[in-house]
Design brief:
CATH superfamily of the largest domain: Gcn5-related N-acetyltransferase (GNAT)
Oligomer: single chain
CATH class of the largest domain: Alpha Beta
Strand content: 25-35%
Number of helices: 9
Structural class: alpha+beta
CATH architecture of the largest domain: 3-Layer(aba) Sandwich
Shape: elongated
Number of strands: 17
Distance between the termini: 20 Å
Length: 308
């Protein structure tokens, strides 16, 4: 049987967050978007827990992030305990008259062992698996400056010849210019951007957010990237884009090269490039683009269960 516990009791057992979107500081930043935040634990086992948002009779994990998922004391938790927790979760939803629960697990990059057990248990217990999204990550340990396609290297050399400059934006005005270019890029591609500049700055108050730019000799911004550095080994690419009228100048290739080298020199091991699909529908061009930039493809799973 699952029970709701206080934040203080929950955190007595779960002192480690396996990714930034289940940290208390991130939850506190977004809890106003829900009616309330619920922390669930089992009466029998204190090795696994779940933090969810409640709104209009629906439980969500995450409720304002790319993925959410479970807290656990270690990745080698016995399968039977996971199975029992997910069984009790359905009972909790029914007993409390809730409509449904939705859970998106982090990519395997963050928790491979737990994902294997969770995905199996979700399916066996009758949860509905949504079409998995495809996600990409770069192994910085193995990156040596060589590219899958020689064209990328040529584009980077051409960018240098054209006098393009890569820089880290540290002043608010520079950061806002980076955001504006990302926003313009998204609008030009017909894709929504769900965060305002102030939203990004709020995140920067709780963990490091890096703003990068590519500029021409005259200072004109033609490339932009925003990444979260909230994990000890993984940096997450949130936004990346460029001036669509100058996309044939290799601007984004130049940005990728510099970002990879920047984080590799910092000692980080991976860059999470995010999804290359939307609600399971592949963006074929984006997927191909990431793969030729060393983006290894894997799946990000989402499950729902309705109280019917």
């Amino acid at each position: 049987m699952l029970r709701e516990v206080s934040k203080e009791e929950y955190r007595k057992y779960f002192t480690v967050d396996h990714h930034p979107y289940i940290t208390e500081v991130f939850i506190a930043l977004n809890e106003k978007k829900q009616e309330r935040v619920i922390r669930l634990m089992s009466d029998k086992c204190s090795s696994i827990g779940l933090l969810v948002g409640l709104k209009e009779g629906k439980l969500r994990s995450p409720f304002s992030a790319p993925f959410g998922g479970f807290h656990y004391t270690h990745e080698y938790i016995d399968y039977s305990l996971i199975e029992e927790f997910l069984t009790d979760l359905k009972e909790y939803i029914t007993d409390n008259g809730l409509e449904k629960i939705s859970i998106t697990l982090p990519p395997d990059l963050y928790q491979e062992n737990m994902n294997a057990k969770l995905v199996n248990a979700f399916i066996r217990l009758g949860y509905k698996m949504e079409i998995p999204d495809m996600t990409n990550c770069v192994n910085l340990i193995e990156f040596n400056g060589n590219w899958v396609k020689s064209e990328i290297g040529r584009n980077c050399r051409r960018a240098v010849k054209n006098g393009f400059m890569f820089s880290v934006a540290t002043e608010r005005e520079e950061m806002e210019e980076v955001y504006k270019l990302v926003q313009k890029n998204r609008e030009g591609l017909g894709r929504k951007i769900h965060m305002t500049f102030d939203d990004v700055l709020e995140v920067a108050d709780i963990f490091p957010v890096d703003f990068f730019s590519i500029r021409e000799k005259d200072g004109n911004y033609i490339g932009a990237a925003i990444l979260y550095r909230a994990h000890k080994t993984i940096v997450q690419g949130i936004f990346m884009g460029g001036d669509l009228e100058k996309r044939n100048l290799g601007v984004i290739d130049f940005m990728y090269m510099h970002c990879y080298n920047y984080y590799k020199e910092m000692g980080l091991k991976y860059i999470d490039l995010g999804t290359s699909s939307l609600d399971g529908e592949p963006n074929v061009g984006l997927l191909r683009f990431k793969e030729i930039h060393h983006g290894e493809t894997s799946l990000r799973y989402s499950f729902t269960w309705k109280n019917e």
